[in-house]
Write a structure and sequence with these properties.
It is a single chain. This protein is mainly α. The protein contains 17 helices and three strands. The longest helix has 58 residues. It starts with a helix and ends with a helix.
Length: 417
Amino acid sequence: MAISTAATRKAPVKPKTGTIREFIFRWEGRSKDGKMVGGEMRGATEVVVTSQLRRQGVTNIKVTKLRMQKGRKITEKDVTLFTRQLATMLRSGVPLLQAFEIVGRGHTNPSVGRMILDIRADVEAGNSLAAGFRKFPLYFDALYCNLVEAGEQAGILDTLLERLAAYKEKMLAIKSKIKSALFYPIAVIIVAAIITTIIMIFVIPAFKSIFESFGADLPLPTVIVIAMSDFFRQYFYLVLGIPIATVIWFFYTWKRSKAMQIAMDRLLLKVPIFGELIKKSSIARWNRTLSTMFAAGVPLVDSLESVGGAAGNNVFEVATKGIKNAVSTGTSLTLAVQNSRIFPNMVVQMIAIGEESGTLEGMLGKVADFYEQEVDDMVAGLSSLMEPIIMVVLGTVIGGLVVAMYLPIFKLGAVVG
């Protein structure tokens, strides 16, 4: 029986697909008119770069692959600084591509430099600046990209970047103040927990062996503290492991569960003192964002699309979606904000005045200024209030342990005396 040649043919091997990794190459050569030229270009290999340059009429080409340093993580502060630098250069008349080149080469974080040069390459290839930013959504959110796009279309990119830089600087300042208000008590609590653990594991057992040699009855506080120390030493893996595991589980789940994020944001707004601080900072960010978008000429409905996420709280994000839907159906912004029931009456009244007088941008900015000042005052007040409270708590915990351990010694001294 003859075997057909078709059956014996091997199936064609499909080429592996994947993203081609590109590098940055520095090149030198001669142009068509004989002048020495040079620059940098992205490409997969030296051959690819050389071929592209030859098609452009460059000869006597020398290509060198640049060694890129590993940079640290890109932070919001890095993006804010880049925005301010770019806005300043454009305002000074520096061409866009040259401004990107200067900022990218001069940045202290190599990760930021690589990102800036990637965006520059996209712009140089003919793409819009907003499209280049949208390739990095982790660092440039919808608000940022929308404002840049509005600036490009209106021909006022330098003005919009200055407003965007000022906006991000204000948001960064608010976040920094809230973090500073929370950092001190958390740091003190952690230090107190470490000290208490050391006392429970090492100090109290030493006292216990001394007290056992007395052969006398111990005071009740001392008995309780020794029992706590025994439990701590016997089940230390549970006493330390459960809180640590709970914290790890919480942050792991919180990052991946939208429902948990919404629940935590609602809970945070109800926490005494700190809840009010978070609410005021969210209101400040909400109004500042809407004011910036509206000033850039972005339509109100499109502006509300980005405002909710910029507030930094899921409760405000959900409420903003409702406001956007109401405004898109013809409801006034004042009525939509009032129906959301999360904004104070002062905010509603200021928005109403802004809508009636045609100065909505200015009124939203004034509301943001007011609540930013409120956040400043609350942070200053919390800092002065937390110190005595923490001192009292630490004195009660640490001092209570020390006194409980010295009570038998005082009792023994009284008997001997």
